[in-house]
Specification:
Residues 4-43 form the HTH asnC-type domain. By secondary structure, this protein is of the alpha+beta class. It folds into two domains: 6-50, Arc Repressor Mutant, subunit A, CATH 1.10.10; 60-136, Lrp/AsnC effector binding domain/regulation of amino acid metabolism (RAM) domain (Alpha-Beta Plaits). The chain has helices at residues 6-17, 23-30, 34-46, 79-86, 113-124, 147-155; strands at residues 66-74, 92-97, 104-110, 129-136. α1 packs across α6 (147-155). The longest helix is centred in the first third of the chain and has 13 residues, at 34-46. It starts with 5 loop residues before the first helix and ends with a helix.
C-alpha cells in the first residue's frame, strides 16, 4: 500500500476532471514535470491504486436499472467457496465482508423485479449461504466518490 501525497492528489483530481488527458497535458495543466506525472501514474498502475474503468460504467446504461443490496449469512467454513461462487454471478457487481448480523453485503443489479427475484435465488443457492435479505436501492443519494478526500489531501499543509 502506498501513501498518496499532495502532488498525487493534484494529479488525480485533474484526471477526475479530464480522464482522457495525456501525461503531457496533465503536466502542463498542473505545472509539473512530465516525468513526475508519468512516474506517478505508472506507479499507481503497478500498485493497483486506480480502480478498473468498469467502475465508471452505469448499470442502467447496460440494461440493469434496478439495484439492490443483499445481506447474506454464510456458514463460516464455506465463506471463501461462497465468495468464489458469487463471483460467477454476473449481476453481483460488488461484495464485501462485514461484521454484524450478516457476513456479506452484496450489491446486485437487475433488469426488473422478476430478474431481481432470479438473482436473489441464485445467491441463496450458493453453497454455504444460509439466508439472505434484500433491500432495493430507491435512488443513489451520494454516488461513489473520492474527490472530497483528494481535495482535502491536496489542500492539506505540507508535512
Amino acid at each position: 500500500m502506498i501513501k498518496l501525497d499532495r502532488t498525487d492528489a493534484r494529479i488525480l483530481l485533474a484526471l477526475c476532471a479530464t480522464p482522457r488527458a495525456t501525461g503531457v497535458q496533465l503536466a502542463t495543466l498542473l505545472n509539473l514535470a512530465r516525468n513526475t506525472v508519468q512516474s506517478r501514474v505508472s506507479r499507481w498502475e503497478t500498485d493497483k491504486v486506480l480502480l478498473p474503468i468498469d467502475r465508471c460504467v452505469s448499470a442502467r446504461d447496460l440494461g440493469y436499472p434496478l439495484q439492490a443490496f443483499v445481506t447474506a449469512v454464510v456458514d463460516q467454513r464455506r465463506l471463501e467457496q461462497a465468495i468464489a461462487e458469487l463471483h460467477l454471478i454476473p449481476e453481483v457487481v460488488e461484495a464485501v465482508g462485514m461484521s454484524g448480523d450478516a457476513d456479506l453485503l452484496i450489491k446486485v443489479v437487475a433488469c426488473d423485479t422478476d430478474d431481481l427475484y432470479r438473482v436473489a435465488g441464485a445467491i441463496l443457492a450458493v453453497p454455504g449461504v444460509e439466508r439472505t435479505a434484500i433491500s432495493v436501492i430507491m435512488r443513489e443519494a451520494i454516488p461513489y466518490r473520492m474527490a472530497p478526500l483528494l481535495e482535502r489531501l491536496r489542500d492539506s499543509a505540507s508535512s
